[in-house]
Amino acid sequence: MRDRMWLPTGLRLRPWESSDVPVVLEAFAEPVMERQADAAITTAADAEQWVQQRQNQWHQEVAYGFAVTDSTNVALGGIAVGDLNPQHATGWVSYWTTAAARGRGVASHGCRAVANWCFADLGLFRLELGHRTNNPASCRVALAAGFAPEGLQRQKLAYDGVRYDVEMHARLATDAQPR
Questions:
Q1: pTM of the entire structure?
Q2: Segment 7-30 mean pLDDT
Q3: Which domains does the chain have, with CATH numbers?
Q4: Which has the closest alpha carbon to 125: 87, 151, 95, 153?
Q5: What does the CA dihedral 114, 120, 125, 131 come to, rounded to 10 degrees?
Q6: CB-based contacts of 133: which residues, under 8 Å, 6+ apart?
Protein backbone atom coordinates (compact mmCIF):
# COMPACT_ATOMS: atom_id res chain seq x y z
CA MET A 1 0.00 0.00 0.00
CA ARG A 2 1.11 3.51 -0.66
CA ASP A 3 1.91 5.49 2.47
CA ARG A 4 -1.38 7.35 2.17
CA MET A 5 -4.51 6.66 0.17
CA TRP A 6 -6.70 9.66 -0.68
CA LEU A 7 -10.46 9.21 -0.88
CA PRO A 8 -12.71 11.28 -3.18
CA THR A 9 -14.15 13.06 -0.14
CA GLY A 10 -10.87 14.70 0.97
CA LEU A 11 -10.39 12.02 3.59
CA ARG A 12 -7.41 9.70 3.50
CA LEU A 13 -6.36 6.33 4.87
CA ARG A 14 -3.02 5.58 6.43
CA PRO A 15 -1.54 3.15 8.94
CA TRP A 16 -1.81 4.15 12.61
CA GLU A 17 1.01 6.34 13.99
CA SER A 18 2.18 7.24 17.49
CA SER A 19 0.89 10.77 16.90
CA ASP A 20 -2.65 9.28 16.96
CA VAL A 21 -2.43 8.31 20.65
CA PRO A 22 -4.38 11.37 21.94
CA VAL A 23 -7.23 10.75 19.46
CA VAL A 24 -7.36 7.04 20.33
CA LEU A 25 -7.44 7.84 24.05
CA GLU A 26 -10.22 10.39 23.61
CA ALA A 27 -12.26 8.18 21.28
CA PHE A 28 -12.18 5.11 23.53
CA ALA A 29 -13.05 7.17 26.62
CA GLU A 30 -16.62 7.35 25.32
CA PRO A 31 -18.94 4.76 26.90
CA VAL A 32 -20.26 3.76 23.46
CA MET A 33 -16.72 2.90 22.34
CA GLU A 34 -15.50 0.86 25.30
CA ARG A 35 -16.47 -2.45 23.65
CA GLN A 36 -14.67 -1.64 20.41
CA ALA A 37 -11.22 -2.39 21.84
CA ASP A 38 -9.69 -5.66 22.99
CA ALA A 39 -8.91 -4.12 26.39
CA ALA A 40 -9.83 -0.93 28.23
CA ILE A 41 -8.06 2.18 26.96
CA THR A 42 -7.98 4.61 29.87
CA THR A 43 -4.41 5.97 29.78
CA ALA A 44 -2.00 7.28 27.18
CA ALA A 45 0.04 4.10 27.70
CA ASP A 46 -3.04 2.00 26.85
CA ALA A 47 -3.61 4.04 23.69
CA GLU A 48 0.06 3.75 22.72
CA GLN A 49 -0.14 -0.02 23.20
CA TRP A 50 -3.29 -0.12 21.02
CA VAL A 51 -1.50 1.79 18.22
CA GLN A 52 1.59 -0.42 18.58
CA GLN A 53 -0.56 -3.53 18.31
CA ARG A 54 -2.06 -2.26 15.04
CA GLN A 55 1.44 -1.57 13.70
CA ASN A 56 2.66 -5.03 14.76
CA GLN A 57 -0.31 -6.74 13.12
CA TRP A 58 0.40 -4.85 9.90
CA HIS A 59 4.07 -5.89 9.89
CA GLN A 60 3.10 -9.50 10.62
CA GLU A 61 0.46 -9.30 7.84
CA VAL A 62 -2.25 -10.76 10.09
CA ALA A 63 -4.49 -7.65 10.14
CA TYR A 64 -4.46 -4.18 8.62
CA GLY A 65 -5.68 -1.23 10.65
CA PHE A 66 -6.11 2.15 8.99
CA ALA A 67 -6.66 5.58 10.48
CA VAL A 68 -9.18 7.60 8.47
CA THR A 69 -7.89 11.15 8.58
CA ASP A 70 -8.93 14.58 7.45
CA SER A 71 -6.77 16.72 5.15
CA THR A 72 -4.71 17.88 8.16
CA ASN A 73 -3.79 14.26 9.06
CA VAL A 74 -5.96 14.15 12.21
CA ALA A 75 -7.47 10.71 12.78
CA LEU A 76 -11.28 10.71 12.68
CA GLY A 77 -11.75 6.97 13.09
CA GLY A 78 -10.48 3.58 12.14
CA ILE A 79 -11.14 0.82 9.64
CA ALA A 80 -9.55 -2.60 9.99
CA VAL A 81 -9.54 -5.92 8.21
CA GLY A 82 -8.52 -8.99 10.16
CA ASP A 83 -9.33 -12.66 10.59
CA LEU A 84 -7.71 -13.15 7.21
CA ASN A 85 -8.18 -16.59 5.72
CA PRO A 86 -5.91 -16.99 2.68
CA GLN A 87 -7.36 -20.39 1.76
CA HIS A 88 -10.83 -18.94 1.31
CA ALA A 89 -9.70 -15.37 0.51
CA THR A 90 -11.87 -13.88 3.26
CA GLY A 91 -11.51 -11.22 5.92
CA TRP A 92 -13.48 -9.48 8.68
CA VAL A 93 -13.99 -5.70 8.57
CA SER A 94 -14.55 -3.43 11.55
CA TYR A 95 -14.86 0.33 11.88
CA TRP A 96 -15.37 3.14 14.36
CA THR A 97 -15.32 6.93 14.39
CA THR A 98 -14.74 9.68 16.90
CA ALA A 99 -17.82 11.45 18.22
CA ALA A 100 -17.02 14.57 16.18
CA ALA A 101 -16.77 12.56 12.94
CA ARG A 102 -20.04 10.64 13.21
CA GLY A 103 -22.61 11.23 10.50
CA ARG A 104 -20.04 12.67 8.07
CA GLY A 105 -19.42 9.55 5.96
CA VAL A 106 -16.01 8.88 7.51
CA ALA A 107 -16.70 5.21 8.26
CA SER A 108 -18.60 4.43 5.05
CA HIS A 109 -16.03 6.07 2.74
CA GLY A 110 -13.15 4.49 4.66
CA CYS A 111 -14.81 1.08 4.70
CA ARG A 112 -15.48 1.23 0.97
CA ALA A 113 -11.85 2.18 0.24
CA VAL A 114 -10.45 -0.54 2.49
CA ALA A 115 -12.71 -3.12 0.83
CA ASN A 116 -11.45 -2.07 -2.60
CA TRP A 117 -7.86 -2.27 -1.33
CA CYS A 118 -8.48 -5.76 0.09
CA PHE A 119 -9.83 -7.00 -3.23
CA ALA A 120 -7.12 -5.38 -5.37
CA ASP A 121 -4.01 -5.63 -3.18
CA LEU A 122 -4.64 -8.56 -0.83
CA GLY A 123 -6.51 -10.68 -3.36
CA LEU A 124 -9.44 -11.27 -1.02
CA PHE A 125 -12.77 -12.32 -2.47
CA ARG A 126 -15.20 -11.99 0.44
CA LEU A 127 -15.31 -9.49 3.29
CA GLU A 128 -17.69 -9.86 6.22
CA LEU A 129 -18.83 -7.65 9.06
CA GLY A 130 -21.48 -7.69 11.73
CA HIS A 131 -23.27 -5.14 13.89
CA ARG A 132 -25.71 -5.29 16.76
CA THR A 133 -29.26 -4.81 15.52
CA ASN A 134 -29.70 -1.98 18.02
CA ASN A 135 -27.01 0.01 16.16
CA PRO A 136 -28.73 1.39 13.04
CA ALA A 137 -25.85 3.80 12.34
CA SER A 138 -23.47 0.86 11.89
CA CYS A 139 -25.96 -0.75 9.53
CA ARG A 140 -26.08 2.44 7.44
CA VAL A 141 -22.26 2.39 7.20
CA ALA A 142 -22.26 -1.23 6.04
CA LEU A 143 -24.92 -0.61 3.40
CA ALA A 144 -23.27 2.59 2.13
CA ALA A 145 -19.96 0.71 1.81
CA GLY A 146 -21.63 -1.96 -0.35
CA PHE A 147 -21.98 -4.73 2.24
CA ALA A 148 -25.21 -6.64 1.61
CA PRO A 149 -27.19 -8.02 4.58
CA GLU A 150 -26.96 -11.78 4.83
CA GLY A 151 -28.79 -12.75 7.96
CA LEU A 152 -29.25 -12.57 11.68
CA GLN A 153 -27.21 -14.26 14.38
CA ARG A 154 -29.63 -14.43 17.28
CA GLN A 155 -28.32 -13.38 20.70
CA LYS A 156 -24.69 -13.73 19.60
CA LEU A 157 -23.20 -11.06 21.87
CA ALA A 158 -23.58 -10.57 25.62
CA TYR A 159 -22.76 -7.31 27.40
CA ASP A 160 -23.55 -6.68 31.06
CA GLY A 161 -25.93 -9.64 31.17
CA VAL A 162 -27.91 -8.55 28.07
CA ARG A 163 -27.84 -10.62 24.85
CA TYR A 164 -27.82 -8.88 21.46
CA ASP A 165 -28.69 -10.05 17.97
CA VAL A 166 -26.09 -9.39 15.26
CA GLU A 167 -26.90 -8.68 11.62
CA MET A 168 -24.28 -10.04 9.24
CA HIS A 169 -23.21 -8.30 6.02
CA ALA A 170 -20.78 -9.26 3.26
CA ARG A 171 -19.23 -7.73 0.18
CA LEU A 172 -17.76 -9.80 -2.64
CA ALA A 173 -15.05 -8.78 -5.06
CA THR A 174 -17.59 -9.41 -7.84
CA ASP A 175 -20.25 -7.09 -6.34
CA ALA A 176 -20.97 -3.82 -8.11
CA GLN A 177 -19.22 -0.77 -6.71
CA PRO A 178 -21.47 1.06 -4.23
CA ARG A 179 -22.72 4.47 -5.34
A1: 0.92
A2: 91
A3: 5-172 (3.40.630.30)
A4: 87
A5: 0
A6: 139, 152, 164, 165, 166, 167
